[in-house]
Specification:
The structure is a homodimer. By secondary structure, chain A is α/β, with parallel strands linked by helices. Chain A has 16 helices and 15 strands. The first copy, chain A, folds into 3 domains: 269 residues, Rossmann fold (3-Layer(aba) Sandwich); 143 residues, Orthogonal Bundle (Isoleucyl-tRNA Synthetase, Domain 1); 53 residues, no CATH class. Chains A and B meet through helix 3, helix 4, helix 15 and helix 16 of A and helix 3, helix 4, helix 15 and helix 16 of B.
Chain lengths: 491, 491
């Protein structure tokens, strides 16, 4: 199997033809959340991006194994290997056992991902569940000579590694510059060099999350878990490693060093990074305190929000930008996405009942090709979506009798549009309020009401007709009278 | 804080007053599923039973930490420590990495629990994520002299243990009888005695799930994980350990031996066991092949099912039997539960709009006391429910003007009924089809229709009134005219 998919490889800094190592299998590892708070808009982007990648690969016939981790230990409050564990701090603040914090926020993360219609990963390993595997990686790195133990902790020797292998190969940073720019922090003195990073940290007496190791009772460094878990479930050399651009340095740079240091080669062929969501031009992040949680977005309950946004609107908003572009949050952009999604959904509905003409005035083949070309070109979802809106225009024109679509083209279109919209882009075709068993009931009640309204009009009973119009309007229901009868929609 | 709750302790074989070790905290550990297949009706019972216990304790003001594990390794196909790992076998059959099987069925288990309205446990640890902790327990048992290593595997020395501590204390079995009744199976010869059980098994070369240990690359015995994880998250001595009666032997018996063997005492004060769900008198179990999965129950898609059953019906059916009674599956029993639940829900709805009288003809205080007495008496939910139906009768009689309830009693009743039904019993007050954002829309549309109907009647426009009646009836909507106006309900 071969598809002309090209992906931008952060490592080579160019687009490269994607060829799986063991076709049709594709191994995909994506860095998951540190579960110490509610997921925010910034989290939605990587998981929607790589959900799209996985869905598109699946559509092309690849068998994807998607591994996304849960960071439940070892992610310290700053990246310089000092400071408190993020989860332990939250647990202390909330007086919970750290694992209660972990499970609470993991459930909330899962709920938000489900609402965004991100398919769950095939394997979702947790850092605390893979301590042994992480110890094994450390032992291999020590054996290669790129790590040293000091006072019960183990550090990766970046300076020594950099003599043999380029540290900074992914992020473009230079060890010399990093050395010059690193402030000495308290407790850093057990490192040979400030650029070195922790593989294992000896736990202080009050530290709850701790495990025995050859060096001390302690816990693994944050970067280590992804090396241990990606290679455990995808092999030492897999296809794609993804994550947000903010993880390139130091996290992914450290992962490369750990892989080269433990098994002699890069962990994967492709490194993919989505760009960030900004808010007034600044990165949105938990540590910056300027984030909007997904729950707040879905409920509208945040001072920066002018309204609530459906999870599907958020998904569409993110898909409408290329994953490598920055995307600035604004109410206007989300409202535009809401309208666009609504148009797209309505056209799918219109398409269902569209009737064929004798001939076609559209070139379906080249249109479909343009959509595939866009997605093959580094997953260019905004271009693909703009072409889909060409299809929306056709559907609406054909519905109004201004465009002919033949039987065979119509059949093709009726299969292709929903496939792209729901299967590949992962957009739910129906807005939330029309879900479930009540949709039929609404329609039934509305049919009755519109029937009574027509009867009133026929009888010139304007009082009743007005009563109905006002009552429906009060419920936010708009009635449109067309030649085929009346239709209705709810705001 | 002290409540007169008594619970049947399987260990003492009698009801005992429950006193938490560290009030108001209560530590509760319940054996979770082995995730290699869809959860079935038999799984619903323990998780509903202990969800009720937790909800009731929370209602009484206790702070419960509820830990329920996920068995994702080490549960062999027979209890004699031989045979294939259940998950590895499923993975081999489905050609998946074992962890894909684990995460797939964990998600499906969570979905089913959510549908049954079981609150998620506070901590849900997995066996594979606690290998180090299990190794530590083995080391402690070896140190106490109750375990021995042979050919890379470690076994618990039941015979030696039984010389110092009664093995069989929970299940009432005798080691001598067990010895006489145990068949020698292939590969058992590395045990000193056939009653010994595995703490650590050396992995065969083809075994995927394996970890290093002081004895061999291998995996823990099934019984071990619950000892390691319950004590890790609840301490060496906690309040309550629960599970299905089928787990008393060998699983819980082994847990007691492991705890005594590693830290010198019983792990918990109370052992609670729910009885089994039978089908035509036989235990329902995956290994017996006579099970009905929860998904099948919810969809009606099984030859033994005459219809689909709402998850809340299943919950009510289980709560209507005391957890220590056997419960035989039958369509009639589930249909009766459906009807009972419907009556209960309707009364809650009626209660909302009920108006007070000047005086009361009910004794609310002693009625409430009876409900608490039932729940305090070893969680006797069927008795509590039967008293709740006394309340249902009152509500219906008051609604029909045949019973007086005073303002203050009505206020109390309006608070107490939903509290018991939804918070404590965990029953969702509204049937599924009335959930979601459409409920308000339906009500708005129906208000308009009933208004139009009234207007037609007032105008003696019988044609329109009949049209409305017939149309609603066609949608399964029944309108009732009462002195307070018209109400409606959908079949």
């Amino acid at each position: 199997m071969e598809h002309p998919v090209s992906l931008y490889n952060s490592l080579s800094r160019k687009k490269e033809a994607f060829k799986p190592i063991n076709p049709p299998h594709v191994g995909l590892y994506v860095c998951g959340p540190t579960v110490y708070g509610d997921p925010h808009l910034g989290h939605a982007r990587p998981y929607i991006t790589f959900d799209l990648l996985r869905r598109y690969f699946k559509h092309l016939g690849y068998k994807v194994r998607y591994v996304r981790n849960i960071t439940d230990v070892g992610h310290l409050l700053n990246d310089a290997d000092e400071g408190e564990d993020k989860i332990a701090k939250k647990a202390r603040l909330e007086e919970l056992e750290p694992m209660e914090v972990v499970h609470f926020y993991t459930r909330r993360f899962h709920d938000a991902m489900h609402k965004l219609n991100n398919l769950p990963p095939d394997i979702e390993p947790s850092a605390s569940g893979h301590i042994i595997e992480q110890i094994q990686v450390i032992e291999a790195i020590i054996k290669s000579g790129y790590a040293y133990e000091t006072q019960g902790s183990v550090y990766f020797d970046v300076v020594k590694y950099n003599q043999d292998h380029p540290y900074g190969i992914l992020s473009g940073r230079k060890v010399e510059e990093l050395m010059a720019n690193t402030r000495e922090l308290a407790g850093q003195d057990e490192k040979n060099n400030p650029v070195d990073f922790a593989l294992w940290k000896k736990a202080k007496p009050e530290h709850i999350m701790r495990w025995p190791s050859p060096w001390s009772d302690g816990f693994p460094g944050w970067h280590l878990e992804c090396t241990a878990m990606s290679t455990k479930y995808l092999g030492n050399h897999f296809d794609i490693h993804g994550g947000g651009m903010d993880l390139q340095f130091p996290h992914h740079e450290a992962e490369i060093a750990q892989s080269v240091g433990s098994c002699g080669h890069q962990p994967c062929n492709f490194w993919m990074h989505n760009n960030l969501i900004t808010i007034q031009g600044q990165k949105m992040g938990k540590s910056l305190g300027n984030f909007i949680t997904l729950d707040e977005l879905f409920s509208g309950n945040h001072e920066k929000l002018e309204q609530a946004y459906d999870p599907q609107t958020v998904r569409f908003y993110i898909l409408q930008a290329h994953y490598r572009s920055t995307l600035d949050f604004s109410n206007d952009a989300l409202k535009a996405a809401e309208k666009g999604l609504d148009r797209l959904r309505k056209s799918l509905k219109t398409l269902e009942d569209l009737e064929a003409s004798q001939s076609s005035e559209i070139d379906l083949g080249s249109w479909k090709k343009k959509i595939y070309t866009a997605l093959n070109d580094d997953l260019n979802s905004p271009i693909a979506i703009s072409h889909l809106f060409e299809g929306v225009k056709w559907i609406n024109q054909a519905h109004e009798g201004q465009l002919k679509i033949s039987e065979s083209d119509l059949k093709d279109l009726k299969a292709f549009m929903p496939l792209m919209v729901t299967d590949v882009l992962g957009l739910v075709a129906e807005p939330e309020e029309n879900h479930g068993s009540d949709a039929g009931l609404d329609q039934g009640l509305m049919d009755l009401i519109l029937n009574l309204r027509k009867q009133a009009k026929d009888n010139k009973d304007w009082t009743t007709a007005d009563l109905i119009r006002d009552a429906l309007s009060g419920m936010g229901i708009q009635v449109k009278d067309t030649k085929d009868g009346s239709t209705w929609e709810k705001n």
